[in-house]
Amino acid sequence: MKSYKDLEVYQRAFSLFLETHRFTMILPKYELYELGSQLRRSSDSVVSNIVEGYGRRSYKADFIKFLIYSHASNLETINHLEKIKVLYPDLEIKANFLIIEYDVLGAQTFKFIDYVKKEWKT
Q1: Which residue ranges make up each domain of the chain?
Q2: What is the pTM of this model?
Q3: What SUPFAM superfamilies does this protein's entry cite (predicted)?
């Protein structure tokens, strides 16, 4: 593994970040800087914490800590999408799709955390 870009969990998180960012741009204008901004930041945090953790991979505990932060931001992202789904029923289908994808990412991240705990060699 040469880079964090080789991690499947990173690739999925980055792809979802891009999709989520685009999704926030269709929110009502008054929501772009409120809930839209929170959603963009939390989805960015998911991917950014994977990258930062990988940068500290020589310190296993730090790597795990940042992966846990990523997982927590993933849950926050799902929560923001749940709010959008209720507040804007016309966006429910796309929000549900993203929620499912973030659920998959959360499970993938959890499995990766477990792998790092058990198998990662520093």
Answers
A1: 4-119
A2: 0.95
A3: IVS-encoded protein-like
